[in-house]
Give the backbone structure.
Amino acid sequence: MRTKIFVIVLFNLAIACVPGAQRDVKFQQYYAEGELLYQQHCANCHQTDGSGLGRVYPPLAKSDFMMNNPDAVLCLMKYGIEGEMIVNGVTYNKAMPGIANLTDLEIAEIATYIHNSWGNTREMVEVNQVTPILAACPPVQ
Ligand code: HEC
């Protein structure tokens, strides 16, 4: 009887652990790829540490805009954004060019990286979440 319970407990533990472990590995892959892509495409303006640059390039580190507008963050990577925006109480107004050739997966990886770096903490952003959001981005003026 005791052995049976032990086996059942072990079995449940194994089931409980495996999806979590796989998710961890996926998160690490997304994060690592996202960091490379960020350095390549974004760090010029937003800086390696996500702190932005003066009143020209807004910060991504602890950005309230990012926290409150996760969908817009995906759209602006691909399509760019312009017009006045307020980030952490500071007004910015300079056009950010979109990077049209980023794939949905690359956008998910960059989003996972920036939402989980420099004090930001959010869930990982998976490619299957990104695709429908990008398809519904509001048109850029
Ligand atoms: C040429 C400079 C430049 C590059 C390259 C660039 N950005 Fe931006 N980004 C800006 C500017 C300028 C704004 C503010 C736009 C405005 O004033 O409307 C901005 C705004 C943002 C915002 C919203 C405001 C905030 O701080 O939360 C996010 C998020 C963002 N960029 C992420 C990225 C990511 C991710 C990349 C790379 C894929 C990237 N940017 C590449 C210049 C840039």
